[in-house]
């Protein structure tokens, strides 16, 4: 069986072994960007503002 690991993967594995607290920091920082509560009123406005997509250029007559 082939067990290749890139230099980047080896670096990250060694970094996590040296500083295990990084995993918790990574998760808390992820929450800042991706796990946010959506405002239903804003979402409704975004849906209402959508513009119909034009057909593919070559299919126009």
From TrEMBL:
Pfam families: DUF3460. This is DUF3460 family protein.
């Amino acid at each position: 069986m082939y067990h290749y690991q890139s230099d980047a993967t080896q670096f990250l594995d060694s970094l996590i072994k040296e500083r295990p607290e990084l995993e918790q920091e990574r998760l808390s920082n992820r929450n800042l960007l991706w796990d946010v509560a959506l405002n239903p009123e804003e979402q409704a406005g975004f849906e209402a503002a959508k513009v119909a997509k034009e057909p593919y250029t070559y299919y126009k007559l």
